[in-house]
Amino acid sequence: MKKRLAYIFALLFTFVVAFGVLSACTLPDRTINEYNVTIGEASLMSTTSATEVLARIRPTVVDVTSYGDEVTAAGSGVIISRSTLTDNEEYFVVTNHHVIEGGNVFAVDVLSIDNGTESTTSYNAILVGSSKKRDIAVLAFFTAKGTQLSTATFIQDSDVVKVGTEVYAIGNPLGILGGTVTHGIVSATKRQVSVEEVGTMTLMQTDASINGGNSGGGLFDTDGILIGIINSGYDTYNEQSVEGLNFAIPANDAKYAAASIIETHTEENGTVTSYGYVEGDANLSLTVSAATLYTSSALISRSTYLTLTAASDSPFYSAWGGSTKAVTSVKINGAEVSLPSDGSAYSLIAAASDALLSVQAGDSVTVVYRDIYSSNSFLGRSRSYVDGTEKTLTVTASQYVYRP
Predict the structure, then answer these.
(1) Residue 298: CA atoms inside 13 Å, Cβ hemisphere, count?
(2) What is residue 34's predicted lDDT score, i.e. its pLDDT?
(3) I need a surface site. Which of 55, 76, 116, 344 has the fewest CB within 10 A?
(4) For residue 259, is pLDDT > 90?
(5) Mind telling me the catalytic residues?
(6) Looking at domain 11-274, does it have CATH number 3.40.50.300?
């Protein structure tokens, strides 16, 4: 039975962007070649009321807007670290990859609370780096020297979070309600779920209300400690409406990815010269799918095949170009991947996706495949079939670095 987890994806708009409304901050003149990042951690905080906790942590969650050539996406993010520079302060924001994907200009709206009065300040932001397989991205923005903004504190170890822990989800639902707080519990701590366009992820489940635009926002415990980054949820299942099945990337995973991205990026005069990455993440750039094809040019019998298509930056592309191949075998570092033979397209896709997601930079990937051809019948109907000759291709996975 197919279980599809849809993103609580960034809310999409098609309006014309008026960049002039952003409160752009002058970028510093400097060169930074290396980052040693310290991200706040805590195992326990003690406060007296929910209102006190929320007043402290709501300003750490920002509204994120990603402007692309065709669409604009609205999501959320969490301020996790600050770097004091010679003339400015640089703040780092963790969000989801799917919030920034396709964007080339970014902005964050930061909440301020002064004696009960709330206001927001908009800053231009730069992309520090991103990891698609981890659904984590990092943005940075600059403020005047001495500006003190709130930063979130990660839990020391999210593995100690238990089912039943009360939580606050804070974000920007619908892309228009920044700073919204919802309340719930941790429903499960380690769910293996399949996320659209990412694959299987181990996520924390919550029943706190989550909507489009919450992506990248924070999941906090009642002491105000960040235990997860919201990224996905079920909206329907088997054509039934679903409520209260939402998920977050555990703090351990989000913190590791964000710190790695920050530490591996480089900047010069406020411009990223090398995007950050998570060391070891592999770049295969393969679209995994399945198709029912005739087994030969005789067009007599058919079978369900795993199919792979390589993007232009894939190590497979030089051999395959943009064509799709019918794959009969996959090996990783010489070990055969078990591909189901039950004829289920879903099973094939799930098994292959999970195996390919486990590939690390430097690993060897071997596929046995057949070319796919089309033949027109006497009625003019096109039918696809696989060539009888099997071919073998071995590539070495390169380091994944997202470049917008």
Answers:
(1) 6
(2) 64
(3) 116
(4) yes
(5) 97, 135, 215
(6) no
What are the Cα distances from residue 150, in Å, to 94, 275, 286, 345, 384? 14, 25, 40, 48, 58
Q: Can you read off the two tokens belonging to residue 260? A: 């790695």
pLDDT at position 159: 96
How far is 244 from 316, CA to CA, in rounded Å?
41
The one-letter amino acid at 369 = Y
Q: Which one-letter DSSP state was computed for residue 239? A: T
* φ and ψ of 159, to 5 deg: -70, -15
Tokens 């989800």 found at:
169
Please state, in angstroms and as integers, the Cα–Cα distance from residue 311 to each residue in 23, 200, 305, 317, following that order. 37, 21, 19, 6
Q: Where in the chain is the domain with CATH 2.40.10.120?
A: 11-274
Percent of the chain with pLDDT over 90: 68
Q: Which long-range contacts (CB under 8 A, 24 or more apart) does 118-125 make?
A: 118/179, 120/63, 120/178, 121/23, 122/21, 122/22, 122/23, 123/22, 123/23, 123/24, 123/25, 124/22, 124/24, 124/25, 125/64, 125/93
